[in-house]
Structures are given as structure tokens and as C-alpha cells.
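Q: I'm writing up a methods section and want to include an example of the input and output format. Could you take the sequence below and give the corresponding predicted C-alpha cells, formatted cleanly so I can copy it straight into the document?
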Amino acid sequence: AEEGERPEPPASVLGAAIRARAMLRMNAAEQAAEAIKPLVEGAFARRRELVELRAAIEAVRYAFAAAARVLAEFEAISPGSPRAYLAAGKALAEARQYSQSARWLEEAAKRSPHWAVPVMELGLLEVQAGRDAQAIAALERATELDPFNVRAANSLKVVREVAGYDRTEAGRFVIRSKPGIDTLLAREMAPVLEQIHAVVTGEQGGGLRHDPPEATTLHLMPDHRWFAVRIAGLPRIHTIAASTGPTIVMETPREGRGHTGTYDWERVVRHEYVHTVGLSRTGNRIPHWFAEAQAVYLELSPRDYSTIGLLTRALLNDELFDFEKINLAFTRPEKPTDRAQAYAQGHWMYEYLVRQHGYEAPLKLMDLYAKGVREAEAIQSVLGVSREQFFEAFKMWAHRQVRAWGMRPAEGQPTMAELIESLPPKAEGSEDRRAPTLEDADRWLSEHPGHPDVLELAMSLTLQAGGGEPTEAMRGRLEAYAKARPEDPATVRLQARLALASADPLSAIPHLEYLDQREEKVATYAAQLAGLYARQGDWERAGQKAERATRIAPYQAAHRELAATVAIKRSDLNAAKRHIEFLIALEPTREIHKQRLEAVKGLSARQAGN
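A: Here is the clean output for your methods example:
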């Protein structure tokens, strides 16, 4: 170094190794290789932890022959050591390459039969792969070697628990459920799962056109703790369902202590089954963001308004994730909104991909991923553009979508901030502007008709003046705002309340349908719609909505009572029996349910006799 300059510090082996391992956790083999490149090309080429990492990197590249050569190189340095086999096997397990990973982990365990770690990793792999018998054998051995390992002990406990669960056959699915009321839900799920399979594997609407070679096992876990341990070996996890490839695990959608709450399990299972089918089609070789985007796309549900707001802010503030950062946001979020943005932005990008290039494009990408082709090369090959060019074109399209959503003013219209800046100050000498009034909003609308932010302001101020309750007099403002910003459900909720309180409550149906399509967690709208359709005498639609209410909140007695009543009106006595049997399980001390069941059985017998 020249005089006055500090010499360049030598590269840190430990620091580079930590960075490389982090990259491997994200399935980013090239970045992992880059992190240790200066070291392995220099004096540290034979350093053991770096050779281990090289084996893991080649494994995650799916270059198994190259990985075998590195393993042989490590063998020459440390004959009989299990460490390189463990590193390669563990990295490959995280990449869901279960078969090859198991072989290497078994070799590591064989080389060090008294070391618990390789056996534990093998056991956890078998849990994820859904091979419960092999998982129990490995985890029993791991806990014998290390009785204090919490993940191994928890995982062993839950796999033993599931071994005693009921088994319900459902076409291409096998449902495992705790005996009792959960098995009643499992039986209800069976026909819906067959419909999900047809959509996800089919030819229409973005289906993946692939049928996994083996049945998918769905574990219906009784509460959040059991679910989390089944997935991660630990009692808490941030989600309610997960796919590990051939296995889907979900917690029961119910409220109360130990439960996360009700949710639309049909939509959630369809999301997870997309993962199962996508992983099968690609041999578990698929970018994280792409897999999640595809799954959200095939949920077949509209975006909720909070997601639209999140995407709009990210786009307008130039905070969209690039192809590298979006994968990191799922596993290592820096902000509370990062994971939600990764899901939403990935879905947005996938939607753009399909709209611009058709349903074939993602399938062609998947076929290249299955061959081990990395994302940058695959996109260039299928789309004819680089990832960077795709991303820039996507952003231009996204700006047009934001305008179509009414989330920013039309070209030439001022922003709300600019309009407020035109107001007089609160007081002489103050830099703060006075709050806008309804008169201000009406004046701005005369100057800028259809301005979505001003229409929202006018609606909000009118609502405040009315004490928070919508009135018939404000219907015009509601309709104008709904036209300018059609994705905001606030106006639809107000319109529904107006309609329900009017002389014609049936006019609320289209508004409630809009809200129900976007509802994921509560059955309120579905139950209301079932009641309104029943008032019309439309028992077919009433039945559809009553069934939807029981899918979102299957353990709530009120929805079961409604569904049973509607089923009887529809002369669907099998459905009525199913709901009443669930009621008996929910409320075993209520004799009325047993009497109803006997009555329905009597009706069934008379119906069969006729």
C-alpha cells in the first residue's frame, strides 16, 4: 500500500462462509460460489469448511457429478469424515431434493454413527418428504444420541401422533386427521379436493398441466402448535398451511385458544396444492418467488384492497424488489411489510407474464427449471429478454394498472398533496394548511372531475357529517367514488348497508357478492347471502353460500344450522345429515340435533322407498 493508505485486509474465511451459507439457504448457488471464490482460488483452497461449502454449492446447482468430485477431494483431505456429506445433504434437503439428499445424509450418519446431527437432518428430511416410517426410525435414533435436541424430539412426537390419525381417501389425496370431529371435516373436504385437483392440474385458466405421480397426503392438524411442530419442529410458525412437496399440512380453521382463527380452507389448500404440483413438475427446482406467485395466481381470487395499496406505494416510491431481493424478502424480511409485498409483487409479475406471453410461458419456464436451468437463462430463452428488461417492462405495465385501479390521479390532475397545499394556512404565519372541507372537495371536483382522491375525501366528509351512517342522500357520491376507484371495498360495504336497511334488502346481493369474493377469514357475507337467496326462494344459490360459510368456519354451529336448513329445503338430505352430524359433534349435549338427525333419516328412508 502507498504511504498514508490502509492496506486491504485479508478476506475472512468465517465471514465468507457465513455469507455463502446464507446464499445457499435462498437456493442462490451462484452467489454462494461468488462469496468464497477469492478464498478457494488462493491460499485457502484446501480449507475444510470451504471444501464442504463447495460440495454444497455444486449440490444446489444440481451438478451431482461435480459435487461427487468435491466430496472425493474432501475425502483426500479428511479420510472418513462425514462433514462434507452432511453439508451437501443438508443444503440439498433445503432445496427439496429429497432422494439425493437422503443418500448423502445416510452416508454422513454411517461415517459417524454416534453423531446426532446427520441422523436428525435425515429424520427432518423424511418428515418433509412425507415418509413417516423412515422419519420415525431416524428421529428415534437422533433422540437417543441427543435427548436434548428440541426439534428432533418435537418432530418425533408429532410423527408418532399422526401415525394414529384417521385416513380418508379423496381421489388423488389422502387426508390424515385426528379421530373425531376433525375426521368429519376431512370427509367434507374430499369432494372439494377432487375439484381442486382438476383446476390445478388441468388445461384451463393457467392450470399446470401436470399430474403428480403419487397421491398427495394432507395432514389436518388439530391446532396451531401441532401444525407448527409438524412443519418446523418448533411450536410457532407464521403461517397456517404449508406444502413440502408430496405433503400438505394445515391447521384446522377454528377460533379459540391455541387456534389461529377461521379461514377459507378451499382457497388455502388450492394455493398449497399448486406448490405440490409445481414442485412435482419441476423436480422441486423452482425459484421461490415464482412458486409463490403461481400459487397466489391460481387461488382464483381478486386482490384485496390492502394489497393494492401496498403494491401502489412500492411502485410509486421505487421500492419494488428486483429478482434477487424478492426471494430474500420471503425468508429474511427487513421491514414488517416485506413478506406481504413479496407475495403480492410476485403475483403481479406473474400476472404480467401471463398477460404478455400467455399461459404457455410459465410452463416453458418450469420445464427449463426442471432441467436445472437457472432463472436468468430460462427467462432469456423463453421470453427473449433479460430479467432486467422484463422487470422494466413490468414496471411500465404496473403504472398503467395503478391508474386503472384509481390509485393515482389521471394524467394532468394534481395530487391530493398539491391540492391541500393550495388551501390557506391554519393561522397567520403557520406553514400548516387548514383541513379541507366538503365545499373544498366539491370545488376541486368541479375543476378535476373524477379525481379518485377527492371523491374519497368527499365521501368521507359526507359520512362524518351523517354521524358515520350512510344515507340515501349520499348514494350519488358512493357511486361516483366506486366508479373512480373500483377496487376499494369501503364504498361497497356502505352500499350494502344502505341496501339492507332499505325497503328492498335483496338489492344488497350484488354488493355482498363482491365482498364475499374477497373475503378470506370470516363467513359473515356468505351467511348473509344464503339468507337473502333463501328469501328469494333461490335454494340452489342459498345452498352454495351456506356451504361456503361452513368451509370458512366449519366449527361454528350457527353456520351448520343454516346449511342444514337450506339443504332440507333443497331436498339434499345427505348434505343435511352431514351438517347435523357435525352439529352433534360440536354440541353433544343438545338433544335437538339427535332428534333432527333421526327425522332426516326418516325422510331419507321414505324418499328411497318412493
